[in-house]
Design goal:
alpha/beta, Rossmann fold, 23 helices, 21 strands, glycosyltransferase
C-alpha cells in the first residue's frame, strides 16, 4: 500500500463529535508523517442510509482508480453493504469503526438486528478493519458469532491519542467546584440522567457546565425542563457547541469531568480530561469500563441516576476522595499516548493485514525488523501476567544484580510495550539501566513512553535505551554489557538453534537470565469451583493448537510449549544453576475482569486451529461459539500453563596446567 488513501465520512468532516474529531486527528498526524490523504464528506442521510447517501458513496468509490486505497468510516458504510461489495475486489478498502451501528441507544430489537446484519455484511469483503477500542474489537466477533455471519478481515485497535495539556489547577479553599460535561445532547449521552443525579447533591459550592451540540431537539428540551423542575438553573448550564479554544478553557477551569453516557465506543473526552489531570465520574457503558483507568475516577452502571448521585455527592463533599482521584488522574496522564503515536499505529494497520502478537494463542507472525505486532493483545494480558509471575524469582534477580553492580544493566528481549520492565523495575534497586529490544518501532515508542516516571524500589528513576532490531540473527542483538538478560512471553516462538545461541552468548559473558511466562502448551477450562474441565472437542482442538505452535515464527522451527524445558537443559549443560516456578494464568469463571482476556484466548485458539486444519473450520467455529457462550455465562474459566526460570552461571574451577 502506498502512503496515500481517501477517507470517506458521513456528512461534513468538520463536525465536532468524537468520531469526526478522531478522524481529523488521524488525518493530521498521518499528513505530518508524509501521507497524502483526500477527505470526502458524503451527502445524504446516515447511518440509516437513503438513496442520496448510497449514490454519494458509490460515486466516491467509482472515482478511485483500480487498487486505490479507501478508508470508510463505519457511519458511512454500515448500511450500504451492496455498494461496498461492488468495489471490494477492485479497491483496497479499510473499514474504520467507532462502535457497531446496532448498539446505538434508542433502537428497537428489529432495528438493532437490521443494523448489525447490514454492518457485518458490509465488513465481510473489506481488506481490514480498524476499531478505536478494545471493547469494539471484542464486540465485533461476538456479533459475528451471534448472527452466524463471517468476519474475514483482521481487526486492529488504534485507540485515540491525546494532545498534551497542562494540569488544571486543583480546587482552592472557598472556590466553586466546577464539573464539566462534554457530549452532544442526545439520549445516548445521558445528560437527563446527569441532571436527575445532580438534584439534591449536598451543598451549594458546585456547578456543572455542559458543552455539546443540540443534536436532538426534543431531548435537549427535556434536559432543560429537568434543570428547571429541579431548580438547578444557577448551577447547571447548557452551553451548546463551542470551538476548540472555548473547550480547552473549560477543561483548564474544571475540577472533574462527568460523562453519564449509556454507551461509548471509546470515550475520547475521558482521556482529554486525564490529559489535564482531571478525575472522571462516568459510567461503565460500552468501552468506558476500559477507558477509565483504575484510581482515576468513579464508574457507575449506565442509567442508574441513584448511583451517579451517590458518586457525585461523595466527590463534591469529600476532599480526601477528590485528592486521591486527582492523584490517580495525574498518574494516568503519564501513560497517555499522543496523536502522533496513534497516527503511526494507524499507518501500521493500513500497510499490514494485522498479525497476531508474540506469545498470543496464535503467533504466526514473523519477527523480522519492521513488522508490526498488535499492542491490544499485550495490553489485554498485562494484568494477568503481573498476577501470575514469580515474585520469588524476581527477588533472586534483584539479589543477583545487587551483588554484581550498583548500576545494573538489564537487556529485555522482545520487550513489546515494556510490561516486563514495568513489573521488574519497582522490585529492583540500584541505578537501573534498561536496554529495550524489539523489532517493532511502534511498540518500542510505547515502551519508552510508559517508562516515564518509572522508578526502582527506592524511588530512583530508571534509564532506558531502545534498540529496534530483529531477534534473528541473535548475534546482531546488543546483549554484550548486560548483567541480566530477561524476556517475558517470548520463548514459545523460538527454535532450538536460537536457544543454543542465546545460552552460548550469556555463558560467555557470565550473564544471568530471567525468562518469564513461557507457555507450556497446556490449557484447559475450569469450573466455578476451580476444577479442570476438558472434553473430547477440547482435546482435539488443543492438539491442533500445539501443532500450530511449532510453525516457524521467524526464529526457526518454533519449539512452542517445549521451549522452556529446552532452555533448562541448555543452561544446565552450560553450567548454570536454574530455579523454576509454575506461573499459570488462572482466569476465574464469572470474572468480569478476566472475561475479555478469556474471549481473546478462545478466538486465538480457534484461529490457530483453523490455520492448522482449514477443512475443519465449521467444527472449530461451533466449538468456539459453544465455549464463548459458556465463558460469557460465567460457567467456565480458563487455565493456561506458564513457567518462569531464573538462571545464574556457576563458577567454573580452573583447569590444571599440563
Amino acid at each position: 500500500m502506498s502512503k496515500r488513501f481517501t477517507l470517506m465520512v458521513a456528512g461534513d468532516p468538520a463536525q465536532r463529535t468524537g468520531g469526526y474529531i478522531y478522524d481529523a486527528h488521524i488525518v493530521s498526524a498521518l499528513r505530518d508523517q508524509g501521507w497524502e490523504i483526500d477527505v470526502v464528506g458524503l451527502a445524504g442521510r446516515f447511518p440509516d442510509a437513503d438513496t442520496e447517501a448510497a449514490a454519494a458513496l458509490a460515486q466516491a468509490l467509482e472515482s478511485l482508480p483500480d487498487h486505490a486505497a479507501a478508508v470508510i468510516d463505519g457511519l458511512a458504510m454500515g448500511a450500504l453493504p451492496e455498494v461496498v461489495a461492488q468495489h471490494a475486489e477492485r479497491l483496497d478498502i479499510t473499514a474504520l469503526l467507532h462502535h457497531p451501528l446496532g448498539d446505538e441507544l434508542g433502537l428497537n430489537e428489529a432495528e438493532q438486528q437490521r443494523f448489525h446484519r447490514s454492518e457485518l455484511t458490509a465488513l465481510a469483503p473489506v481488506a481490514r478493519i480498524i476499531v478505536t477500542s478494545h471493547f469494539t474489537a471484542r464486540r465485533l466477533p461476538e456479533l459475528a458469532t451471534q448472527y452466524a455471519m463471517p468476519l474475514n478481515a483482521s481487526i486492529t485497535v488504534v485507540e485515540p491519542g491525546v494532545a498534551q495539556a497542562p494540569i488544571s489547577p486543583e480546587l482552592e479553599p472557598g472556590e466553586t467546584l466546577r464539573l464539566l460535561c462534554v457530549a452532544t445532547l442526545t439520549p445516548r449521552k445521558g445528560q437527563d440522567i446527569l441532571v436527575q443525579a445532580l438534584a439534591g447533591v449536598a451543598g451549594n459550592h458546585w456547578r456543572c457546565d455542559c458543552y455539546g451540540g443540540a443534536r436532538d431537539a426534543a431531548f435537549t428540551q427535556r434536559v432543560q425542563q429537568l434543570i428547571d423542575q429541579n431548580d438547578l438553573q444557577g448551577c447547571v448550564q447548557l452551553h451548546g457547541e463551542c470551538d476548540s479554544e472555548t473547550l480547552e478553557a473549560a477543561y483548564r477551569h474544571a475540577h472533574a469531568l462527568v460523562l453519564p453516557s449509556w454507551y461509548e465506543g471509546y470515550g475520547m473526552v475521558v482521556t482529554e480530561a486525564l490529559a489535564h489531570g482531571l478525575p472522571v465520574i462516568t459510567t461503565t457503558g460500552g468501552a468506558l469500563r476500559d477507558t477509565l483507568p483504575i484510581g482515576a475516577g468513579l464508574g457507575v452502571e449506565p442509567g442508574d441516576s441513584g448511583a451517579l448521585h451517590e458518586a457525585l455527592n461523595r466527590f463534591c463533599n469529600d476532599a480526601e476522595l477528590r485528592d486521591q482521584l486527582r492523584q490517580g488522574a495525574v498518574q494516568a496522564r503519564g501513560q497517555l499516548s499522543d496523536w502522533s503515536a496513534a497516527g503511526a499505529a494507524f499507518a501500521a494497520a493500513l500497510v499490514t493485514q494485522g498479525s497476531a502478537p508474540s506469545d498470543s494463542p496464535n503467533s504466526s507472525t514473523s519477527l523480522s525488523a519492521g513488522s508490526q505486532f498488535e499492542s491490544d493483545w499485550l495490553t489485554l494480558r498485562e494484568a494477568a501476567d503481573f498476577a501470575s509471575r514469580s515474585q520469588r524469582l524476581a527477588k533472586f534477580a534483584a539479589e543477583w544484580l545487587g551483588a554484581h553492580s550498583p548500576a545494573p544493566l538489564i537487556a529485555d528481549l522482545g520487550c513489546g510495550r515494556g510490561s516486563n520492565m514495568r513489573f521488574l523495575a519497582p522490585r529492583l534497586k540500584g541505578q537501573q539501566r534498561w536496554e529495550l529490544i524489539d523489532h517493532d518501532a511502534i511498540l518500542l515508542a510505547q515502551a519508552r513512553q510508559r517508562a516515564a516516571g518509572l522508578s526502582d524500589i527506592n524511588g530512583h528513576p530508571v534509564a532506558v535505551e531502545t534498540h529496534c532490531v530483529s531477534l534473528e540473527p541473535l548475534a546482531d542483538v546488543p546483549l554484550g554489557d548486560a548483567h541480566l538478560v530477561t524476556a517475558s512471553a517470548l520463548l514459545d516462538l523460538v527454535s532450538q538453534q536460537w536457544i543454543d545461541a542465546l545460552v552460548s552468548r550469556c555463558a560467555a559473558q557470565q550473564q544471568a537470565l530471567l525468562i518469564a511466562l513461557s507457555v507450556t502448551g497446556e490449557w484447559h477450562f475450569i469450573s466455578p469451583q476451580g476444577e479442570p474441565v476438558l472434553d473430547d472437542e477440547d482435546h482435539w482442538l488443543l492438539a491442533m493448537f500445539i501443532a500450530h505452535q511449532q510453525r516457524d515464527k521467524g526464529l526457526g522451527d518454533a519449539l512452542g510449549g517445549q521451549a522452556h524445558e529446552a532452555l533448562v537443559a541448555a543452561l544446565e549443560k552450560a553450567n548454570y544453576r536454574v530455579e523454576q516456578d509454575e506461573t499459570p494464568w488462572q482466569l476465574a469463571a464469572g470474572s468480569h475482569d478476566h472475561q475479555p482476556l478469556m474471549m481473546a484466548l478462545l478466538a486465538g485458539w480457534a484461529e490457530a486451529a483453523t490455520e492448522q486444519a482449514p477443512e475443519a473450520a465449521a467444527r472449530i467455529a461451533a466449538w468456539l461459539q459453544h465455549r464463548q457462550q459458556a465463558v460469557a455465562n460465567g460457567e467456565l474459566g480458563v487455565w493456561v500453563g506458564h513457567r518462569d526460570l531464573f538462571a545464574t552461571p556457576l563458577l567454573t574451577a580452573p583447569q590444571e596446567e599440563v
